[in-house]
Amino acid sequence: MKGKITLIQILFLFVFAVSAFFAVRTYFDRNKTEKDFKELQSMVAEPEPEGEEETESVEPREPNGMLSRYYALYERNNDMAGWIKIDGTNIDYPVMYNSDSNAYYLHRDFDGNNSSAGIPFMDYQCEPTGGNNNVIIYAHNMKNGAMFHSLLQYGDLDYERSNPYIRFDTMYNRGIYEIFAVFRTEVGAEDEFKYYEFINAESREEYEAFIDNCLSHSLYDTGIRPEYGEELITLSTCSYNANNERFVVVARLIEKK
Amino acid sequence: MTFAGKCAIITVYKYKYKGELVVKKIYLSTASVLVTASALVTQALAAAPSISVSTDKSNVSYTYTAVNGDETVADAAKLFGDFAEVSDTEYSSENLTITSESADGNKVEVLLRLDAEKTDYTYSVLDYYTFVIADGDGNVIYDGEAEAAADAQASEKEISFGVFNSEEAAETRTYTVDYKLNPEVVSALDGAAANLKVSIASRVVDDVEEPDYKVSVTARTPEPDTEVAEAVDAVTDTASTAAPEVTSTPEAIEINEISKVCGKDIPAGRYMVSGNGIVKIETPDGDIKDIVITDGTIEGVEGVDKALATINNGDIITASPLKGMDQPAIRFERTDVSAETTGTRTGTSAAASTVPSGRPTVAPKNNPKTGEGSSETVALCGIMAVCAAVIGVLEIIKRKKFNS
User: Chain B within 8 Å of A124 (Cβ-Cβ)?
Assistant: First the structure.
């Protein structure tokens, strides 16, 4: 009898050990993700300042017109579409692009290997070289603070006033965007705002309707309304407030080099 | 008492009955506990395989079993609106979004299946409707009009949407299904449509070749813009090749002259640029992009062998020769008609000399789930907690029982 109880204990111990192995592996996977992104950040080649005077430097480019600062990364994976950085947050990541679907980089790292955290990626219907009315970028909301977790701080107007800009560079142009709307919307709800379906406006009315929707859903009033034709950027991540809810930040382009 | 029952005996509670202490015991089957634990682990680590099909109007979801050869069939008639309203002259159209999730690595083939009773007539009920199916890029993957009539004795016809999950555990594709009455069959078999069953079938398969995509642009796309087509023909005819020869398909646009205007000489779109030359793209706003293209055959010239360029109406594309060349030889290959990207994945690029508008797809689009998958971690922790509790309880029982 004692032996049988011991046998059962051993079996449960085995199950415990297997579960612990997978739990630890998940933990190390997340830590590895952090290291990988640091390595990618170190590969960005910042141009050296020319001389002592602070003059506006010309951004070095490759013969094909791509920004040299990201070219080493682009050579490593041609799916790279750009880089996103938001001052005051830890959002400082490459942005990937897959023309087939939005699922590819949801759980893949920069090199296409499986990764639970994924990597920020551009909507597959966008044009990665630019020229979209609205560029949509998705990323996970990781509980350890990675990816687009910091976006949720924009739920606070004071935070938005302190950090109103988003830097997004394509492989060809550097861009600075000014946030004008922040909202939540529940996917599948009757009153869902399908912001992710707006890439290019067929007409002025369609563009204005999108802006109206963004402003009416916004958590607060920034006092900014983009004019027809201004390029927009939409950052989307999951919110844990409700099931299937998304937290969205929309900004307009104010500077392009 | 079975062996399994003897394996685990847990004291549940003690109570007094008529002044006497009575101990109730529950016999647990170790096997059932282990199976439950295994199922929890499996469930935690692997999502249930599923297929979902949706249109703009309705959502049909069902699951398939993961055993090779098994298949699941679901009535799909409701996906196609009211068949009674279908015309025999104009196509009705439905946009389907099919998502297949197969975390266990199985490939899944999804099909449109037609079942009908055999007839003694010349025609088969399977041909009652004519279907034309195109994928999300406008490629026609099935053209019922081009297919031979089914045998009157045939009772089943399958049209494959393709094999999913060859590379990804979760894969979503969009399709446009056009359908109309087949006038020949309808006149002969009036009323027989009631016997026709339309369903979506899915089955786990081994290595199955993807259906041969027929890019019948001429069959389903509207007439090309003749102004653009004429201009392109003129370019090809007047091209003189002092430059090294650039091999090209008849559908590619050869730019051997000095400049082209997008919207007039070349359609707007996304192109893969290759060949030899310096390409300058100037937008109406004055933005200029310079690209040096070389296939490596010109000494002393550094550049790229190909580059992606998006050109919009009004852009002026100027090609100038590389050092040592008399003329540039640049090839613009349209990429936004098919799924080709910047070169990391293979795919067919539909180079076109006309205006390939394809089929506009207004399929419902999914918003990717960008939440952290914490359920796996929670399940693992739960399993560990249960195991630890059981081990602890058994240890207490063991000590009490054998120390007393």
Answer: no
Q: Is the distance from CB of A116 to CB of B377 less than 8 angstroms?
A: no
Q: Is position A99 within any domain?
A: yes
Start-end of H helices in chain A: 2-42, 71-76, 157-162, 204-217
**Contact flag B344-A78 (C-beta cutoff 8 Å):** yes
How far, in Å, CA of B335 to CA of B330, rounded?
15
Residue of A nearest to B365 (CA): A197
Q: Report CB contact under 8 Å: B171, A103.
A: yes
Query: pLDDT tens digits for B346-390?
Result: 222 223 222 223 323 445 677 888 876 556 677 888 899 999 999
SS (H, E, C) A150-186: HHHHHHCHHHHHHCCEEEEEECCCCEEEEEEEEEEEE
Q: Within a domain: residue A110?
A: yes
The domains found in chain B, sorted by start residue, are 3-45+374-403 (no CATH), 50-219 (2.60.40), 222-334 (2.60.120)
pLDDT at position B33 is 57
Q: What is the mean pLDDT of each run of 10 residues along chain B (404 residues)?
A: 46 53 52 55 50 68 47 68 71 84 79 77 75 84 79 80 85 88 73 72 67 32 32 33 35 61 74 80 77 72 70 83 77 56 29 30 69 70 91 90 73
Return left, alpha or beta for A50; rule: phi > 0 is left, psi -120 to 50 is alpha, else beta: beta
Cβ of A99 under 8 Å from any chain B Cβ? yes
SS3 for B156?
strand
Residues of chain A with pLDDT under 70: 30-31, 48-57
Count Cβ atoms below 10 Å from residue A135 Cβ, excluding itself. Answer: 28
How many folded domains does chain A comprise? 1
Q: Give the closest-approach CA distance of A203 to chain B in angstroms.
A: 16
Please state whether beta strands A121-122 and A92-97 pair in parallel, antiparallel, or not at all (unpaired). Answer: parallel
pLDDT of the residue at B19: 53
Among B38, B289, B367, beta carbon nearest to A187: B367
CATH of the domain at A160: 2.40.260.10
Residues from chain A that touch B29, judged by Cβ atoms under 8 A, are none
Identify the closest residue of chain A to B364 by CA–CA distance: A197
For residue A71, being part of any structural domain is answered with no
* Residue among B302, B373, B398 minimizing CB distance to A2: B398
Integer Rg of chain A from CA: 22
Q: What is the pTM of this model?
A: 0.47
- Residue B121 near residue B115 (C-beta atoms within 8 A): no
Q: Is A88 part of any domain?
A: yes
Which A residues 8-47 touch B at CB under 8 Å?
8-9, 11-13, 15-16, 18-20, 22-23, 26
Angstrom distance (rounded) from CA B331 to CA B344: 20
Q: Give the domain range for residue A175.
A: 78-256
